[in-house]
Specification:
The longest helix is centred in the middle third of the chain and has 21 residues. The protein has a six-stranded parallel sheet, with helices on both faces. A six-stranded parallel sheet has the order 9-8-7-10-11-12, sandwiched between helices. It has two domains: 183 residues, Rossmann fold, CATH 3.40.50.2000; 179 residues, Rossmann fold, CATH 3.40.50.2000. It is α/β, with parallel strands linked by helices.
Length: 380
């Protein structure tokens, strides 16, 4: 059996690695895996055709300078799949690249050049904006693997088989005993307020959010002189971030991924880019606010299409603003520091995180990767 897994960014790389391991566990005959990924998929035994970071870019304007390289990678990937003839191609998130890849493969299949199945993992948020994408996905894919419990009906009504597999974030091991570990290792007293900055894993995110986050932290330190600041940087962006933050007092730049959850546990409060990290912080019980900015042109194009009230998944599940959100023009140092100040001064926020996150559990108790692997092997 041959399967090809295409992950276009770091979050997809982690998902792809988990699915690869589950496939190897469940397969009853020899299994050959190839794909596009990064470190996690490499550790799971998948050699990437090229670095997944070549595809990790967000925003309409932001993608334009990298479009020639992305199109070249798209051509290379299509050629590889047609040459190796995998039984199933699993595209993971990254719709900008993966939907284009699926379109080419569907055309190749219609022309008799390939006989495999197409599956996508992580449903597009048609419940939030551009609902017409559901019918387009149905025209391309044979199966859709959904992370949210309310997603399958949006696609099955268009004839696309869709399975809720649970959200993989619930499988993340957030140690219960590490609340003081980071503080002890870094000589930070238990009662010293610690602000954690999480500006994202994409270069485009960091370019827009880092100055905002630094100015917010500087304002907060002026009000709380004892404030310690930690910034967790994706390894591939650490050099750029180090250069941009070298003059910020009391800032600790952390690039070791092993420090991630100890940091979550030790932080008094956090400021994060909107995304999956907000769910991780909620799982760790870390009070936080989220912010996000894209180019003004990109935002002007998409804001009229958004149909949901909240950006945070936790808020969406709870149907309440448990986590303060600051998007685009609302994301200012003044607004962010005002939201974070009471959290850093010890305000107890015990939101209904647990009740919201329980909805992400898979229905049969199996891990999302196990359920995904079962669907893929069933298609073979």
């Amino acid at each position: 059996m041959k399967l090809f897994l295409s992950a276009g960014e770091l979050s997809g790389d982690i998902l792809g690695a988990a699915v690869a391991r589950a496939l190897r566990t469940q397969a009853t005959e020899p299994l050959e895996l190839s794909g596009i990924g990064a470190d996690a998929m490499a550790a799971a035994g998948i050699e990437s055709l090229f670095p997944a970071s070549d595809l990790a870019v967000m925003g309409i304007v932001e993608v334009l300078p990298r479009l020639p390289r992305i199109l070249r990678r798209l051509k290379e990937t299509t050629a590889h799949i047609l040459k190796t003839q995998p039984d199933v191609v699993l595209t993971i998130d990254a719709p900008g690249f993966n939907v284009r890849l699926a379109r080419r493969l569907r055309a190749a299949r219609d022309a008799g050049q390939w006989r495999g199945k197409l599956v996508h993992l992580v449903a597009p948020s048609v419940w939030a904006w551009k609902p017409g994408r559901a019918a387009k996905m149905a025209a391309l894919y044979d199966h859709l693997l959904c992370l949210l419990p309310f997603e399958p009906p949006y696609f099955t009504k268009h004839g696309l088989n869709a399975t809720f597999i649970g959200h993989p974030i619930l499988d993340y091991n957030i140690p219960e005993t590490s609340e003081t570990l980071f503080r002890v290792q870094n000589n930070i007293a238990p009662d010293t307020p610690l602000l954690l900055l999480l500006p994202g894993s994409r270069a485009s995110e960091v370019n827009r959010l880092l100055p905002l986050f630094i100015e917010t932290a500087t304002r907060l330190r002026a009000q709380i002189p004892a404030l310690e600041i930690a910034l967790l940087a994706a390894p591939h962006l650490s050099a750029v971030i180090a250069q941009k933050t070298q003059h910020v007092p009391a800032l600790r730049l952390i690039t070791d991924a092993a420090q991630k959850y100890p940091l979550y546990r030790s932080a008094t409060a956090a400021l994060a880019a909107s995304g999956t990290v907000s769910v991780e912080l909620a799982l760790a019980g870390t009070p936080h606010a989220i912010a996000y900015k894209i180019s003004p042109i990109s935002y002007a194009l998409v804001r009229r299409l958004i149909t949901v009230k909240y950006a945070s998944l936790v808020n969406l599940l709870a149907e309440a603003p448990l986590i303060p959100e600051f998007i685009q023009d609302d994301a200012t140092p003044e607004a962010l520091s005002a939201a974070l100040l009471p959290l850093l001064r010890g305000k107890k926020v015990t939101p209904e995180y647990a009740a919201a996150l329980d909805q992400l559990q898979s229905p049969d108790g199996k891990s999302p990767a196990q359920r995904a692997a079962a669907v893929l092997l069933g298609l073979v």
